Amino acid sequence: MSENILEMSQGNTGHGKVEIAPEVIEVIAGIAASEVEGVAQMRGNFASGVVERLGKKNHGKGVKVELTEEGIKVEVYCLMKFGISIPAVAQEIQDNIRQALLNMTALEAQEINIHVVGILFENQKLEPEIEQEI
Description:
This protein is about 30% helix and about 25% strand.
């Protein structure tokens, strides 16, 4: 098994194995996080900014997945809307990602860390993507 692929152990029907790339987990986590009320914008990196400028939506933007000996570690970088409870929204993001991963891949994340990198005020427009590496 490659270091960059997760092999699912559940649902083995004897027909072969199912492998999931970390990029799939990033996409699932990115969509789950952006669905939460209070999240204004996900913060991507240089590569995701270039991809979006070329007209493709990058749903894994603002999410970094690390495969460790202990399990899957998910890092989420986002901007929050002004006036919301940051701890409550962060908890909801963690719950939403954990549930989405469990439902879609039967995998459990060891850690889901939320990094609030900014606040978006009502009269502000969404910030253009800053070309930075996470």
